[in-house]
Design goal:
This protein is mostly helical. The protein has one domain. Helices cover about 70% and strands about 5% of the residues. It is built from 3 helices and 2 strands; from the N terminus they run ααββα. A two-stranded antiparallel ribbon has the order 1-2. Strand 1 and strand 2 form a beta hairpin. Helix 2 packs across helix 3. It starts with a helix and ends in a 9-residue tail after the last helix.
Length: about 100
């Protein structure tokens, strides 16, 4: 058991676990922001009455759910920006680099 505790301390497993949990929480907040605020506003701008998620493109008899794809891409970009600026703010981008 002592070896396991040493492994956790040396490898930063606790920090990794905290980061994983916080990442999940940030993802939920960003998803709610995109779904509840950004999508309805984009839906109004694009003329989709129910919001961006309901925007479709018709190609003959087929309807492509373009709104949902755009919504997921916006969600991804916002999360990527949050992670990028979080890493920059904490100075983690400088780890492993030699000056």
């Amino acid at each position: 058991m002592h070896g396991f505790i040493d492994f956790i301390k040396k490898q930063g497993v606790a920090g990794l676990a905290v980061g994983f949990i916080l990442g999940g929480a940030v993802s939920k907040v960003v998803t709610a922001l995109i779904t509840d605020v950004v999508n309805p506003l984009l839906g109004i701008a694009l003329g989709a009455a129910k919001g961006l998620e309901s925007a479709t493109v018709a190609l003959g008899p087929v309807e492509i759910l373009l709104g949902h794809f755009v919504s997921v891409m916006i969600d991804f970009l916002v999360i990527a920006l949050v992670v990028y600026f979080g890493v920059k703010a904490l100075g983690l981008d400088k780890l492993g680099k030699t000056a």
